[in-house]
Design brief:
Distance between the termini: 91 Å
Structural class: alpha/beta
Order of helices and strands: HEHEHEHEEEHHEHEHEEHH
Strand content: 15-25%
Number of strands: 10
Radius of gyration: 26 Å
Largest sheet: 5 strands, mixed
Helix content: 40-55%
Length: about 270
């Protein structure tokens, strides 16, 4: 009898484990179903140049309110985002800080249509140091040891900053003071942390609610650098995603989008 009891106990235990396994398997199926559903409803992934880090939040929020389509944002330098797209990054929309990178993607067949200019960026000189009188002339002074700038190899605003320095015959004099950020966001970090006494950034940054009234800045003459024409493209994806992406592409030409862009210091077409 003892022997049979042990067998029955083992049998009961086995059935209990099988029931638990079936229960856990059911939960797993539900979670997978939810995951798939979330993926289908995940909306758009928008890759945006670093100068757009504040403006794109307001743009995407307004777009979602108007269309019900949620947006996930990826912020980096235009050059780095382009490289990621070429490697197959699952971005649906690419908002560059120039026309060059979107044209490159279009010409290599990676986009659904040609690039469109959504705004023109503006360059400013900015400092968080109270004792710095912000001007181009101060860049060569001894109390300015570090000048933050976005890497001109990957960031169009870095290219514009170098053009300004060359235009004013300052580049050769202060070249050894330049501290390069991977993107304009990193250049901003150097300025905000005061690691750099002064630096070049986008006007959209200093006008953002997060940064407004922090430090001192001046606008730079737009004749001193090439026009920063910022373009957007829709990346080739499956049909339904491209339809949503096209809605965002068209939204950027709307009155509400232009108003937001202009509030952040961009001029619009």
């Amino acid at each position: 009898m003892l022997y049979l009891s042990k067998i029955n106990l083992k049998k009961d235990r086995k059935e209990e484990l099988m029931t638990k396994k079936a229960y856990l398997y059911g939960i797993l199926l539900i979670l997978l179903s939810i995951s798939c559903s979330q993926k289908q409803d995940s909306g758009l992934t928008i890759a945006a140049a670093s100068n757009m880090q504040f403006a794109i939040k307001q743009l995407s929020k307004t777009f979602t309110i108007q269309t019900g389509i949620p947006c996930t944002l990826v912020i980096s330098s235009s050059g780095k985002l382009t490289a990621q797209i070429k490697e197959g990054a699952p971005f649906d929309v690419f908002m560059s800080a120039d026309e060059k990178y979107p044209k490159e993607l279009f010409e290599t067949g990676r986009t659904n249509g040609a690039p469109k200019i959504y705004g023109y960026g503006k360059l400013v000189l900015w400092s968080m140091h109270k004792d710095i009188d912000v001007s181009l002339g101060i860049l060569s002074k001894p109390n300015v040891r570090h000048i933050a700038i976005a890497n001109p190899k990957t960031a169009p605003y870095g290219v514009a900053a170098v053009e300004v320095l060359r235009k004013h015959n300052l580049y050769d004099t202060i070249q050894n003071k330049l501290v390069y950020g991977e993107s304009i966001s990193q250049a901003n970090q150097f300025i905000v942390s005061k690691s750099a006494e002064i630096g070049f950034t986008s006007k959209s940054v200093v006008l953002s609610s997060q940064i407004k009234n922090k430090g001192k800045w001046i606008s730079l003459d737009e004749d001193d650098y090439s026009k920063i024409a910022q373009a957007v493209v829709v990346i080739k994806q499956e049909v339904e995603t491209q339809k949503k992406a096209k809605k965002f592409y068209n939204f950027l030409s709307s009155a509400s989008a232009k108003k937001i862009l202009e509030e952040y210091g961009y001029s619009t077409p």
